[in-house]
Amino acid sequence: MGLGRKRQVGSLMRDYKITLSEYRNSVKVPWRKLAGKPFGCSRWLPGGRALPLGWHVATTSPDSKARASLMVDILVSEAVRGPAIDALAREWNLVEDVQAAEDPERLAAYLPTIRAWIVRNRTQVTADALAKAPCLQVVGRAGVGLDNIDCQAAERAGVVVAFTPRENSLSVAELAIGLMIAWLRHLPKADRHVREGGWDRPRFLGGELAGRRLGIVGLGRIGCLVAERAAVFGMDVVGYDAYVSADDPRLDEYGIQWVPWNELLETSDIISCHVPLTPETRHLIDADALGRMKPTALLVNTARGEIVDEAALLAVLKEGRIAGAALDVREREPPEVGALEQLDNVLLTPHIGAFTHEAQERVVTAVAEDVARVLRGEPARQVVGRARPER
Ligand code: NAD
Prior knowledge:
alpha/beta; Rossmann fold; 3 domains; seven-stranded parallel beta sheet
């Protein structure tokens, strides 16, 4: 090493409090190779330390995975794609690695450098992961459920959690209504029957939505949209929400009659779940709730699988103590093919509530815009808790 270089390294070690071995083990990246953009280094040196010169000490890990992730500003750890994500990638160094959602070791390699992390519902954004991401400013959740994100830990760490609470509500509401009709009219079975050459019409005698009582559990965004649509179909709509009172003006607006929990269970022909997953709502539909339902009732769940005790549901379905279930979400996803899949009175979809072209475009655009806003130092539009990052 020449004298000039030695002096540079000596001052680096002093200024940035790194040892010679740390310096030697560090991955050094030529300034010019950083996607042609003027990168500030403070983002991957905890504590706001920045390196001048044409070299960056980005990490002290010689691990090749860390090396690969070295320059990542934005990690997209699930399939969140579209023009809005492409726009982010033009401005920041963005990597999509969907395997990182399942592989903690792979994920750990990105955490030291990322400033933004875009997820759906598979990636677990835990307190531990947040602690390992000292430069992280924003977690962008493309969707609405926040049960995979430790929002309290994020708030403590000063990390903004941006999400898209409204963008897919309509699609979920339409699926809930679609599942009701599909179940009542035996659509999947009828389709299979015709494909196999059948035309046995009486076998598919179904039922109408009109005149049936729909019990909506959770009168938030999706619950209200379901109510509005159900009313158009001529259903008698009742609802229960632990945090919405019987005199809430929204109930009139959406044509919902608030009823106590047990009354909803005991009088509804169809029960549709639209509560978030919380410790309180886990197994809200348990053996007791299922036992109160009418033997002719249909249970629809497009919220979260764990809201329904699946073992208890299996038991009542097998014994014919309720008429059927239509489930978009499961206690374990993806589920193992088991006894539920064998039942004739069950209709199953693979968590597709939000998966429409329209909803996805709205979700991806909204989350990408909020991530960009935070990275530019502006407040995000749709956040959980604090609106501004503290780092
Ligand atoms: P929201 O927050 O607008 O409404 C949820 C409602 O549930 C609120 O009114 C709340 O007061 C009520 N609630 C909370 N705890 C309750 C309890 N213990 N008992 C009764 N009511 C309770 O949420 P939203 O936008 O309507 O979404 C509802 C849920 O739908 C989400 O949390 C998410 O889990 C699920 N979801 C599923 C999909 C899918 O793909 N299937 C897509 C989007 C959302």
